[in-house]
Amino acid sequence: MTYNYLETLILPYRKSLNSTETLIADHMIELGSEVVNKTLANLSEETGLSEATIFKFVKKIGFSGFQNFKISVASNFRTFEERSNELVVFSDISKDDTPYVVAQKVVNTNIELLENLIATLDEALLEEAIALLTSSDTINFFGQGASSIVAYDSYHKFLRTDFHCQYAQDYHIQLTYATKLGPNDCAILFSHSGNTKETIEVAKILHQNKVKMIILTGDPSSALVKLANVAFVVLSKESEFRSETLTSRLVYLTIIDIIYTSMMYVGEDQNRKALLDIRRALSVTKYDGD
């Protein structure tokens, strides 16, 4: 039995696949690691589809060519036994599980999410996002519902840098503030579905004003991604009582942690001073005792 890297790889594109692409995806997932031993001609014969159609599918899921795709599969597959040596194998939580087993499953799911993140994170995309942010006059955070909480946490973190940051929870204020931003500003928008109407409306205003946009979403085919300068697509799976949005929250926050930590070393002296100034200002909130 194997951990199916292909299933993880294809997951964020599932909603946008047509029937032909779904057939290719299902066949590749069934093949698992054996796909690295296949040629385009093999896959064409097995699926009854043309080599060109299969090649287009590989391009759609983010690869420049079939060989690059096979290299990625070969380097990311690991056997079930190898993974089970590291952690208790995850399956969905049942009512018969003890609190400790629930704890194991929740923690191990989070570990798996973070492993998937590091396996699929695009270094060039990360560097592009950091370049956009460091070249901007202001950094602005937007989100609705559960995504608003992630946006606020990110804003709170970035306040520790030397960069000027802004966050507003109210949707009307978000719309209003978006009109004030321009080409020298950058906005980070969160929407796991990628189809949150309010966030899309904010993004449209930002796009009209030529604001640089970084999107974190779970849907690579969403309207938000089409408006973005940089888009991070987050992999997650829904279980019975943990929605996809909740499980993905950890990954969003981790991506922000990566960007924040990297940016602290851009203009390190200024950021260090900003952090010290903030700590000094907050020191009045700490109780020193008698």
Task: Characterise this structure.
- The chain is of the alpha/beta class and 290 residues long.
- The protein folds into three domains: 2-83, Orthogonal Bundle (Arc Repressor Mutant, subunit A), CATH 1.10.10; 87-119; 123-281, Glucose-6-phosphate isomerase like protein, domain 1 (Rossmann fold).
- It is built from 14 helices and seven strands.
- Strands 4-3-5-6-7 form a five-stranded parallel sheet, with helices on both faces.
Q: How would you summarize the topology of this molecule?
A:
Layout: E1 2-3, H1 5-10, H2 19-31, H3 40-47, H4 51-60, H5 66-76, E2 78-79, H6 80-84, H7 99-120, H8 123-134, E3 138-143, H9 146-158, E4 164-167, H10 171-178, E5 185-191, H11 197-208, E6 212-217, H12 223-227, E7 230-233, H13 244-264, H14 268-282
Parallel strand pairs: 3-4, 3-5, 5-6, 6-7
Antiparallel strand pairs: 1-2
Domain HTH rpiR-type: 4-80
Protein name: SIS domain-containing protein
GO biological process, one term: carbohydrate derivative metabolic process
